[in-house]
Design a protein that fits this description.
The chain has twelve helices and 13 strands. With 429 residues, the protein is of the alpha+beta class. The protein folds into three domains: 38 residues, no CATH class; 85 residues, Glutamine synthetase, N-terminal domain (Ubiquitin-like (UB roll), Roll); 252 residues, 2-Layer Sandwich (Creatine Kinase, Chain A, domain 2), CATH 3.30.590.10. Belongs to the glutamine synthetase family. InterPro entries: Gln_synt_N, Gln_synt_N_sf, Gln_synth/guanido_kin_cat_dom, Gln_synth_cat_dom, Gln_synth_gly_rich_site, Gln_synth_N_conserv_site, Glutamine_Synthetase.
Amino acid sequence: MAHILAPTTQWQTRITKNATSASPMTAKMWGSLLLKQNKKGPTKTSTKFRVLAVKSEGYTINRLEGLLNLDLTPFTDKIIAEYIWIGGTGVDVRSKSRTISKPVEHPSELPKWNYDGSSTGQAPGEDSEVILYPQAIFKDPFRGGNNILVICDAYTPQGEPIPTNKRAKAAEIFAKQKVIDEVPWYGIEQEYTLLQTDVKWPLGWPVGGYPGPQGPYYCGAGADKSFGRDISDAHYKACLYAGINISGTNGEVMPGQWEYQVGPSVGIEAGDHIWASRYILERITEQAGVVLTLDPKPIEGDWNGAGCHTNYSTKSMREEGGFEVIKKAIHKLSLRHKEHISAYGEGNERRLTGKHETASINTFSWGVANRGCSIRVGRETEKQGKGYLEDRRPASNMDPYIVTGLLAETTLLWEEAEALAATKLEQNV
């Protein structure tokens, strides 16, 4: 992100009462997702939703589209809630649907639910029940109407967070009064790569071959430079519809790679919005017949990796004299570099090489306007004497709950004395 603005005044853990007036994604949004479909003439249809998974005669498809587009609101108060949670890998998103008796405005109005944790790598078969706690709700861009997406975290039947529930620890950090008082803002830049389904090779690349070298693809336009724009645009609109605080999008340096930005968001909201946006992206690529990967280095060689740069500021950083506060925060981050790196995404060592706009994974560095550093400070922040910092270390597959919570913990709750004691302990070992 180029800068951090004031955060949204709308908290997306609530659904506005006029949600019934919203409509699901239209044919123009979804129709453009068809990639190289056989066209034997103009398709005559008056429906709004294109089903990509069904391969049959148009009449059958049209009937199915009509059912998918049924507006339930004139006939029932019941809604469909899609419960979403993070699976056993810590990166995969899972979901299932249930009927709720009436529209809701807050996650506290939703019941807890359960799932088979033995099928997601999160519980043994002999004691497989895992409990879902609804935490944030968003409008459902796929079903429309009053239907919702529900971000959940997972607990044992005894009420303990399961090991892959990173939201619970982050929520504890953001509930500390010192953190609340500093109103931490986050702007997260999520990079991702689109792959061809059968060959798992980047979208737009010749099968078994390579495109021209990097240079013309970043923010580029044209059939030979931009691959997957329709998916990026559909995702952009779907996130806005859902109430996700998405602030922009662009094509990335490696062809077939894209980025979107979420934020500025306050506290735990940042993680909720990133996970909801990832789920929506998975659903869109599913319908487009394209594979999404968050691998931090999907193609080895002279190609950029994929990161999840995290812009961060506190109230003190944004006020007069904030640059000094930023430098103190950076000093603390330098002392906990190893701890942060270990939590910033699997496979990140393949990306953080000191090349392709990254710093070495083994060395902490910071600089003004330097994209080859661990922490970058913008020119405007230096000029104004206040602003934010950008942590460029997180990988594209990082858990936003871990990263946002760790940044707040290190800069606001962690005392330097602990670092000095830890350093001495390492030296004596």
